Structure prediction request, 444 residues.
Amino acid sequence: MKRNQKIRQFSVLFICGLLISLATIVACRKTIYDGAPEMHIKNTYNQLLVDYQSSFRDSILHFGLEISNTEKSMDIMDEELDIDFKGKKYLNSIYETLNERSLDSKYNSLTLKQVRQICFSLRELISQSTASLNKEELNSPNVQGMYISLAFARRILKNKLGKTPLEKKILAKKMSLGIMDGPAVPVSNVQPVYAQDVFGGYELGLSAFAMNEDIIVNKQAFLDVVNQDASALIQDDKGLYVFQTVLNSISATTFSLKDLLTEIDFYVSLHPENLGSGSGSGCPAGWWPSGSSHGCCGNYNGCCWVWNPICYIHDKICKKCKPAWFCLSGCKPDPTPAPGNMEAFSFIEDSIPIEGNIFLPQPLPSPIYYKKNYEYLSAYIPQFSTEIIFNSTDSKYYSDNQYLNIVPDGYYDSPSEIFGNNHVYYLIMNGVVVNKYNVTIIPN
Prediction:
């Protein structure tokens, strides 16, 4: 009894400490940086001239971003934005502001290639400008304004890519439940809100500013990481069980972090059979992870009082402390390498071709065969199949003549490029070819 009381007392102290830390992080952004020197960086990155200026006064970040083509000296982007850091919902206001401005018709004429080039230019700007900064300097709103600028460019990119089938499915699920934001049906008053727009690592002071929908999850690669962690444990970890269950329930091979967090949200909310005493531990739900589980913010005995998948996901994104401009200083690389040949997480601009467009050779076969996982490419195993039709209007591949259903994400075997055991596979994500691989099939 006394032990349980001590655990509860420690849990309360831990929660208080975490809340104080979060409040301190937010307060620091709003006070100690107020009146900081203005920033002005103008340089050429990735063949684009980028001019970034910012100032922070009275908790308001004002920054200007001008990007032009050095060859033609024409403005591609010219924006001035004010971000108000006051109030509890300032992160939501950032997303709304960026999203609204990204819909301006002046960006309609930009191509995917141009917007992607802008994203890589801003990443280079950030990488070069932050290389020598410490964590406190990186947290400055003036510096984070560069990351917000990148998030703005990604909004334009996201608008051009449109909604994925999984995003449409999640939206329909939300509408059927009568909710549009936040958790579907709160399990308890201690349940955190997962399906937010801004990456939670930024709020926790673990990473730079980024949007959840701009972080792309490779399902199989992340599931491999989770399974590896689970197999290394002596006893079951219910935090990892949540990740395993949700990941296995998603049919898409790639999706945004926002989609994953929303699906976790639905899992937590729509399993009333798991509600209860938490096996007598005082936890809010029967499935609830322990204080030592993956995804619990902290490490202690008893049930977890602050469980958030971001605490686990951030560690996996930054397992190699790369990219350094995102993971911030003070990061320690994971000594255990992740399994598989593909990264579990990438950014939206990395999920489409960097140079030009890649297309399957014509004529297209009917049907076409594909594999779902990278590690299966060289294996002689049965393949999935689907009809495939190219839509010249949006340069995407569909499985029907009405262009209603994009072909499943996967690695497509090109029948005209098979030479003995050598095959060429095209990786298609959201209907677009993003890469191709020359593979030697190893017979069983």
About this structure: The radius of gyration is 23 Å. The chain is about 35% helix and 20% strand.
